[in-house]
From TrEMBL:
Keyword Nucleotidyltransferase part of the UniProt annotation: no
Keywords, alphabetical: Hydrolase, Metal-binding, Metalloprotease, Protease, Zinc
Stretches assigned to the Peptidase M3A/M3B catalytic domain: 222-670
Biological process annotations from GO: proteolysis
Cofactor(s) listed in the protein's UniProt record: Zn(2+)
Protein name: M3 family metallopeptidase
Keyword Transferase: no
Entry's cofactor comment: Binds 1 zinc ion.
Length: 674
């Protein structure tokens, strides 16, 4: 069979690909990759960096290309057939990568090279590649004896079951709960759309009245707008007690089992705690450093948070005679106070942000900073006619990257916005092979009478994803696994978040924020208002984020063997961050899916960490002019082009001249005012 995915191609050959090509292509490419790896292992020559590490990093390239095409389609333009193929090939792909990680012969060769690492005169990038590859094996138990290896596999199997169970319980709790409202009075304050949705939901379940659930689109507006305080309390407690009812959906034992197994796993591999294990491959490096970071921010944010809390409590007392502000009052009175202070409306801003103007704006920003030029082209194949394609060139007219942009929602596209690639950058046999990068969003489409107009939030989203895009486009490394966004978790949001800063700057807005009918520039007092409202209750929000970081570290940064009472342990961990009275009926840990089901264990701090980085980096631009070519070049040279080739702290220091400092974030967030 002629399969376009198995022939050599530079650009993804979308017009030739049919769904039935995928599975045979995957199977063939996996087979080929296995053979390439066997050749490395069976090589009679003694292992060297070149014949083992380099060979391994360039093995399976066709498989990588097929995977990226397929999974990008599954996110942006899927259908039942593609979803079915995904279910079939996903287990095969995990088996494939497991086989590599468990390949003892391969590990022995890597280990031999690793043990000679200091006498090999490797470049920093080669050293990093060796270190990362070695650790990808050792962190999975390659150095353990057979008994310990067996135990490690048991723990991994048990953990994946428990994580699944944890998530299923949270989901079942969410789906199980409903608040049926039969008295119209109880709907007071709710927006029309929420009331309508609640009526429709009740009708669909053949109930009379209105149904409110724990799903965000129902829960959030109710907590923000419902005047009935008792019902807010009821709903808030239901939301906060998921997995905490001592029934078959209870997660307390699952939490304890998960943290104990993670601890045991870390110990087996030679780490004092799970957090030590995780943080070894993060910019923050150690639990001590994370705690120091959280505590430093807490010291600075707490006074602001307490001030804001008092302000909110006073406002609630004035308005409704509330004596003691509870958790279920927070969103409600905050929303009212915010309206009173800012009265900002998306509709007022949208005419200044026509999609085409914003895209043009982000391209102009990239041109001013990095000399990049985006040329729209029509000779590149695409997976949907709506996708736009660009060739990107630098000032010297060198080809930098291919850029795909896919902006509007379609039935086959998942929610949200993201950056991805169809091909990563690498250098092979002296040739720098340039990347193919894509941004995918879900912005409202234009109509026959109105262009696509973005909310301010969507504008920052576009800049954010474009920042990830630049990280991919400007990549300049040798090895594909270290290229572009292949960096530590707590470093990857720096290029994206830093780009958002330009959206608040007059010099940048002048490039694109013009009214789509009158051409008038967005009034600066509106921009000031956006900035101020973005900082509204920033102290409280920061302390809340920190509390989750502390809880995460409490579960993962210590020996958990003696913890018996989940709620009591959690209460202790929240002690330094509490603002509201304690609610005995609720428990955060039993539904904290980020850390017990998702990949955020010992990583929750990274949200704030990334903000510190981006504020500190942007402050450097501000000190020198937001379009300073000198600073932009440094950012490109030391951060954007380097990918994961060196420790991110070293890269950052080379760019900034110092480690990141939290003051820029405090300043930007208005937390330094007293
Ligand atoms: Zn991001």
């Amino acid at each position: 069979m002629n399969n376009p995915l198995l022939e050599p191609f530079e650009q993804a050959p979308f017009s030739k690909i049919k769904n039935e090509h995928f599975k045979p292509a995957f199977l063939q490419a996996m087979d080929d990759a296995r053979k390439e790896i066997d050749e490395i292992v069976d090589n009679p020559e003694p292992p060297t960096f070149r014949n083992t590490l380099e060979a391994l990093d360039f093995a399976g390239q066709q498989l990588d290309r097929i995977s990226s095409i397929f999974f990008n389609l599954n996110s942006a333009e899927t259908n039942e057939e593609i979803q079915k193929i995904a279910q079939e090939v996903s287990p095969l792909l995990s088996e494939f990568s497991n086989d590599i990680i468990l390949n003892q012969g391969l590990f022995e060769r890597i280990k031999t090279v690793y043990e000679q690492r200091d006498s090999l005169e490797l470049t920093p990038e080669q050293y990093t590649l060796l270190d990362k590859k070695y650790k990808s094996f050792s962190r999975n138990g390659a150095n353990l004896n057979e008994t310990d290896k067996k135990r490690l596999r048991e723990i991994d199997a048990e953990l994946s079951k428990l994580k699944l169970k944890f998530g299923e319980n949270v989901l079942a709790e969410t789906n199980k709960y409903e608040l049926l409202i039969t008295d119209e009075e109880d709907l007071k304050g709710l927006p029309e759309g929420t009331v309508e949705a609640a009526a429709q939901l009740a009708e669909s379940k053949e109930k009379k009245g209105w149904l409110i659930t724990l799903e965000y689109p129902s829960y959030i507006p109710f907590m923000k707008y419902a005047e009935n305080r008792e019902l807010r309390k009821k709903l808030s407690i239901a939301f906060g007690s998921k997995g905490f009812h001592n029934d078959e959906l209870d997660n307390q034992q699952n939490v304890l089992k998960i943290v104990n197994l993670r601890f045991e796993r870390a110990n087996l591999l030679g780490y004092p705690t799970h957090a030590d294990f995780v943080l070894e491959e993060r910019m923050a490096e150690t639990p001590a450093k994370v705690l120091e970071f959280l505590n430093e921010l807490l010291t600075k944010a707490k006074p602001a948070a307490e001030r804001e809390f008092t302000e909110l409590e006073t406002y609630a007392k004035e308005l409704d005679g509330i004596d003691c502000l509870e958790k279920w009052d927070s969103a409600y009175y905050s929303e009212k106070l915010k309206q009173k202070l800012f009265n900002l409306d998306d509709e007022k801003l949208k005419p200044y942000f026509k999609l085409e103007n914003v895209i043009n704006g982000v391209f102009l920003v990239a041109e001013k900073l990095f000399g990049l030029k985006f040329k729209e082209v029509t000779n590149v194949e695409k997976y949907h006619p709506e996708v736009k394609t660009y060739e990107v060139y630098d000032d010297a007219n060198n080809f930098i990257s291919l850029f795909y942009a896919d902006f509007h929602p379609r039935p086959g596209k998942r929610d949200g916005a993201w950056m991805t690639s169809f091909k990563s950058q690498y250098t092979l046999n002296g040739k720098n092979s340039r990347p193919h990068i894509s941004n995918v969003c879900n912005f409202t489409r234009s109509t026959s009478t109105k262009p696509s107009l973005l909310t301010f939030n969507e504008v920052t989203t576009l800049f954010h994803e474009f920042g990830h895009g630049l990280h991919g486009m400007l990549a300049n490394t040798t090895y594909p696994s270290l290229s572009g966004t292949s960096v530590y978790w707590d470093f990857v949001e720096l290029p994206s978040q830093v780009m958002e800063n330009w959206c608040y700057e007059k010099e940048a807005l002048e490039l694109f924020a013009h009214h789509y009918e009158t051409g008038e520039l967005i009034p600066m007092e509106l921009v000031e208002k956006i900035k101020e409202s973005a900082n509204f209750q920033e102290g409280m929000a920061t302390v809340r984020q920190l509390s989750f970081g502390f809880l995460d570290m409490a579960w993962h940064g210590k020996d958990p063997t003696n913890i018996k009472d989940v709620k009591a342990y959690e209460t202790e961990a929240f002690k330094s961050t509490n603002l509201f009275p304690e609610t005995p009926e609720t428990c955060m840990s039993t539904s904290f899916s980020h850390i017990f089901q998702g990949g955020y264990s010992s990583g929750y701090y990274s949200y704030k960490w990334a903000e510190v980085l981006d504020a500190d980096a942007f402050a450097y631009f501000k000190e020198n002019g937001i379009f300073s070519r000198e600073i932009a070049n440094k950012f490109r040279e030391h951060v954007l082009s380097k990918g994961g080739t060196e420790n991110p702290m070293e890269l950052y220091k080379r760019f900034r001249g110092a480690e990141p400092n939290i003051d820029a974030l405090l300043e930007r967030a208005g937390l330094l005012k007293s």
